[in-house]
Amino acid sequence: MLLTIVLKNLRHALLCLLPGLCGIALFSIVLAVSRTECNLFGFFILPMLIGIGMNYGIFIVQQQIHHSETHPSKAVIATALSTLAGFGALIVAQHKVLFILGLGAFVGVLGAIAVSILILPALLKPKTRTPGSFVAATVLLLLLLPGCRAPSIHYTTAPATRVSGKQVEHAGVYRGELPFRTLVVQGKERCRVVILSDMGIKFVDMEITPQTITVYFKAGAIPKRAVGDFARFYTAWAFNKESHDLSRKGEKMSYHPGAKELLWVTAP
């Protein structure tokens, strides 16, 4: 609203938002293509990308509509290069939080500056429909479509069955970065497992037997690989506590199907 009042044009205000939105879309594409898991801290970078992209967009839009003889585009490029250098250094970090912050900022700012310099000027000149403007609009559409898909929530069609037995509550960490809580109802032949975030948001609801795993609920943000990891751990925990993949030290039980620890829980 404020941007529309300042620019006195709704279309120009919306165009100022495009660089940031396209930066977020490009970040989503990179995550999908590289199959990189985005943790919670990856979403913290999104408001920053909107702000940086809007800043670039305002400078370019003002330059185009007022036909300024100065060259703010050069200042925008210089600012973007310094931002890319600063956040790009975080990509080589071994810590996953720093890595995802660096990757998100680097890719997002790169997309925002590309849209600001290459696409915005073409969109601000509707009377000169050159092949370049057609290419710019096509690239813009391809960037926005993958980034607009919202995470889905999958429900199974099978009704949940009631399991009676001993109730246990666990607290642990998955892959060294995702804290979780688990509510387990352990029966003689089956086990009901509900995985929650540390704030109580339900991630997964499943029923486990020695032969089968039935998932009644899976949040769209949780990858299927994580569901499989939790299912295999609780299958071993409930029905095969002598498994070589489990180790216990005091109240801590670790699950390490490979060389590294995959997850651990406090197991009273």
The unreliable regions are 146-157
Order of helices and strands: HHHHHHEEEEEEHEEE
Structural class: alpha+beta
Largest sheet: 9 strands, antiparallel
Estimated helix fraction = 40-55%
Total strands: 9
Major sheet strand order: 1-6-5-4-3-2-9-8-7
Strand content: 15-25%
> What value does the average pLDDT take?
79
Q: Radius of gyration, rounded?
A: 25 Å
Shape: elongated
**What is the tally of helical segments?**
7
- N-end to C-end Cα span: 55 Å
Overall domain count: 2
Outline the structure in words:
- It is a single chain.
- With 268 residues, this protein is α+β, with helices and mostly antiparallel strands.
- The protein folds into two domains: 2-147, no CATH class; 154-266, no CATH class.
- The chain is 49% helix and 19% strand.
- It has seven helices and nine strands.
- It has helices at residues 2-7, 10-34, 45-66, 72-88, 96-123, 131-147, 224-239; strands at residues 154-155, 166-174, 178-186, 191-197, 202-208, 213-218, 246-249, 252-255, 263-266.
- The protein has a nine-stranded antiparallel sheet, with helices on one face.
- Helix 2 crosses helix 3, helix 2 packs across helix 6 (131-147) and helix 4 runs antiparallel to helix 5.
- The protein is elongated.
- 27% of the residues are buried.
- The model is unreliable at 146-157 (pLDDT under 50).
